[in-house]
Write a structure and sequence with these properties.
This protein has one helix and two strands; from the N terminus they run ββα. The protein has about 60 residues and is α+β, with helices and mostly antiparallel strands. It has a domain of about 25 residues. The protein has a two-stranded antiparallel ribbon. The longest helix has 11 residues. The chain starts with 11 loop residues before the first strand and ends in a 12-residue tail after the last helix. This is NADH:flavin oxidoreductase/NADH oxidase N-terminal domain-containing protein. Pfam families: Oxidored_FMN (PF00724). It comes from Virgibacillus siamensis.
């Protein structure tokens, strides 16, 4: 691997104490299973958990 990409695989901590194992994130892909008000549903959380193989960070598009 090119050394310039090494920081992507290092852990990162936010000021509030939340810690990421690495800096690789998955962009939102769908909101097909969101609640009718646009909030994230349990099914959507399960979907992203399966896709991420256990990591827990998710960013979702929301209606404004």
């Amino acid at each position: 691997m090119n050394e310039k990409y090494q920081p992507l695989f290092e852990s990162f901590s936010f000021p509030n104490g939340t810690r990421l194992k690495n800096r690789v994130v998955m962009a939102p892909m769908t909101n097909w299973s969101s609640n009718s008000d646009g909030t994230v549903s349990d099914d959507e959380v399960k979907y992203y958990k399966r896709r991420s193989k256990g990591s827990a960070w998710s960013s979702q598009p929301v209606p404004m």
